[in-house]
Design goal:
Blueprint lengths: L2 H20 L5 E7 L10 E3 L15 H8 L7 H24 L4 E3 L11 E10 L7 E2 L9 E10 L2 E11 L6 H4 L9 E6 L2 E6 H28 L5
Parallel strand pairs: 2-3, 2-4
Antiparallel strand pairs: 1-7, 4-5, 4-6, 6-7, 8-9
Length: 236
């Protein structure tokens, strides 16, 4: 297969997913795109922090990932980076809680986690849509200022893709929220948040917004993981 034809295939895959996403409900939606065949029941789900920048992406190494990388041109601002990682941290924490509520063994990724061939790895990344062009998908990066918080997710077991899709939930995150909330000036009570080993000081307002947005996203992702388990007979 020549390079031109490969590029066309990546473009077709990307376009198809974009159309599926844009057709969803504006408040909360998930589009399933592909999944593997019969696989053994997982011993647990390991939740990895969702990627905020391109270098952090952990999606499968295939034409889909190449299409995502090639379509990413939006620079991540310092504020988006800080807020994005705070959301990713809270999202992982909330996801473990939501999955356990659904009867699915789950834990956050870490050096102490012992995995097996049946362990499912949940990875994802934050995505945005160019507001000036609804067909332009920005695959890597954390978007602030829109009405939705969007993610692209994957479940992988032993190298096999269990499920893949996108979520879209209502967002209250806005550009300039760190400065307007008086974080630097200490206008409000501040709360330390440890992200990636680094302590970040956030106001209660900002932290509350982050927790609410991450919580809504965690609920949507957990619903899709549960559905994938039910479809395979892993849950009643």
């Amino acid at each position: 297969m020549n390079i031109t034809r490969t590029g066309r295939m990546a473009g077709y895959l990307l376009s198809g997913i974009v159309l599926a996403i844009l057709a969803g409900c504006p408040s909360a939606s998930v589009t399933q795109t592909r999944k593997a065949g019969a696989l053994p029941r997982p011993d647990m789900v390991v939740v990895h922090d969702f990627a905020v920048t391109q270098k952090e992406v952990k999606l499968d190494q295939g034409v889909m990932q190449k299409a995502m990388r090639d379509s990413s041109s939006k620079a991540v601002s310092q504020e988006e980076n800080a807020v994005g990682h705070a959301v990713a941290n809270k999202l992982s924490e909330s996801l473990v809680t939501e999955l356990r509520k659904a009867g699915i063994a789950a834990t956050r990724a870490g050096m102490q986690v012992q995995t097996s061939n049946t362990t499912v790895h949940l990875t994802g990344q934050f995505v945005t849509i160019d507001e000036g062009n609804q067909t332009a998908r920005i695959w890597i990066g954390f978007g602030m200022g829109g009405t939705e918080l969007r993610t692209h997710i994957q479940l992988v077991q032993g190298g096999n893709l269990i499920a893949e899709g996108e979520t879209a939930t209502k967002s209250s995150l806005k550009p300039g929220m760190l400065a307007s909330a008086g974080v630097a000036a200490g206008a409000e009570t501040v709360v330390p948040l440890v992200v990636g080993g680094t302590a970040t000081t956030l106001s209660e307002t900002v932290r509350g917004t982050i927790e609410a947005d991450a919580g809504r996203t965690a609920e949507e992702v957990a619903k899709r993981v549960k559905k994938a388990y039910q479809d395979r007979g892993w849950l009643p």
